[in-house]
Amino acid sequence: MLLKYTIMIIKRFYFVAITFLAFLMYSCGERYPDHPWEWDNEDTEKNPTITAQGWTAANSYGELPAYIQVYKSPDQLSGKKAIAYIAVADMAKTSFDILGDVAYSTEANGYGGSALTTPSEFYQKSKYTIITNAGLFYAANEFYYSQNLVVRGGKMLCINQNYYSEDWTKLWYPTVGAFCQMQDGTFQTVWTYYSNTDKVNYYYPEPANNDIKKEPLEVPSSTFPAGAKILNATNAIGGVTVLLHGGEIKNTYVQEMLDISAATNQPRTAIGYTADKKMILFVCEGRNMTEGVSGLTTADVAKVMKDLGCTEALNLDGGGSSCMLINGKETIKGSDGKQRRVLTAIGLK
After folding, report:
1. How many structural domains does the chain have?
2. Residues 6 or more apart from 101 whose CB is under 8 A from it?
3. Fewest CB atoms within 10 Å of the CB: 173, 202, 276, 298?
4. What is the dihedral of CA 283, 288, 294, 296, to 10 degrees?
């Protein structure tokens, strides 16, 4: 009898101890997202340059195509506490698309769309394996104006914003970044300008050297800046700040002029392309949604993308818009506390 009661006491003690331990883990640990994460520390062969830097492969998003891998960042990036994710896709096998119902509206006298969409809604419609937010936009008169280029299937649907002013007296005409899949299948970041005079979308190997602290430069054209070509892309998405071009860090937010708080720590989204023909989509958390995680500057993101092997990279919309879904599952904590509705998204499958 004594043995029986002793066993019962031990069992009860064990149950209480386990329950208390679970409570501590529940109370102190991060609970977002609400699905279990598993990390495959053995995945070092597919992308050894990435895993050697402490990025850890994820294997709990459901089935992924063999040509797409997902990784979580080490605890720090650029010396800052970080929570970031990347999707790495072999572009010889991956379908790449720009999502969003956008076009030129005669009624609104501008490029954009009449509705916004959450990344999860994009996923429900398209079932793309990877979805991130894409270009910048703003609302006016019940229309959502795209500030960024969109090319889909060889058709230009929106242009990059081709003017900037603080007082509508003095105007600048910046060349703004774009990530392009060219008709020959190559990918590159460029600076673009749509000429209202020529009705042509030009792209350039270097940006017009505008600066809000200086007088405006001439309107971009077929001769300025040097090296202009007509953009004939299969797919393209605009952003603000070319991070990498030709393997070199650029970080041209001053010249591109649209305000993205580039020099402060923020949630960020970026797209890049590597020398071994892989696309990398990057997203990082910020604004202390997780304690101590304030985000990254665009200079930080440029360095991270270069370290990951990218030769071309573009900063996309960030802040509350930053989001990455893997098979429809969230990764970072969005800084709005929920998914922000956006005009455009990037899809990989």
Report:
1. 2
2. 113, 114, 115
3. 276
4. 10
Interval 95-152: pLDDT, tens? 999 999 999 999 999 999 999 999 999 999 999 999 999 999 999 999 999 999 999 9
- 81 and 23 in one domain? no
Q: Are residues 8 and 144 in the same domain?
A: no
182 and 272 share one domain:
yes
Token duo for residue 236? 């393209």
Q: Detail the DSSP E strand segments found in 54-122.
A: 56-58, 68-72, 76-77, 80-81, 84-90, 96-99, 103-105, 110-113
12 and 147 part of one domain: no
266-299 pLDDT per residue, tens: 999 999 999 999 999 999 999 999 999 999 999 9
Residue 341 DSSP one-character state: P
The reply to whether 26 and 45 lie within a common domain is no
Tokens of 85: 């994710």
Instruction: Enumerate the β-bridge partners of residue 266.
Output: 296
The end-to-end CA distance of the chain, in Å, is: 64
Instruction: Tell me the CA distances in angstroms from 252 to 31, 262, 322, 326, one per residue in order.
Output: 37, 10, 20, 30
Residue 113 CB partners (closer than 8 Å, separation 6+): 100, 101, 102, 103, 143, 144, 146, 343
